[in-house]
Amino acid sequence: VQLVESGGGLVQPGGSLRLSCSASGWGFDFSANAMSWLRQGPGKGLEWIASLTADGSYSKYIRFVEGRFTISRDNAKNMLHLQMNNLGVDDTATYYCAVGWGKGGTRGTGTRVTVSE
Predict the structure, then answer these.
(1) Looking at the predicted structure, is the pLDDT value of residue 62 above 90?
(2) Is the dihedral of CA 100, 82, 113, 60 positive or negative?
(3) Residues forming a β-bridge with 81
């Protein structure tokens, strides 16, 4: 499976970004897999942020982003998204999408998000 994240960039505190992840690969059935978003901030370890079931009916978030981030998917387009609102400097990180529930699965190369004045 190949995962390609996009949508990162520089944003001011309080701003919003929408990250996307395109999934492809021979034999990979996107619609049959739960998917997750992870992040790694400067000098920090890999952190799980959110996961979404294969059918998109159930999601779970780390408490720090609950109410600010929304994970979603479009199974017809093999796309995973992360809407991020009210961003703070602590959200600065490289964001990765990953196959499966949690942070143990295959992930992409990431997209960088910087929150700064």
Answers:
(1) yes
(2) negative
(3) 20, 72
Vertex 30: Cα angle to 8 and 110 (nearest 5): 25
DSSP-assigned letters across all residues of 38-104: EEE-TT--EEEEEEE-TTSS-EEE-GGGTTTEEEEEETTTTEEEEEE-S--GGG-EEEEEEESSSSS
Phi-psi region of 43 (alpha: psi -120 to 50; beta: other; left: phi over 0): left
Structure tokens at 14: 């309080």
Residue keyed to tokens 């952190």: 47
For residue 6, the 8-state DSSP code is: E
Which pLDDT tens digit goes with each residue over 87-104? 999 999 999 999 999 988
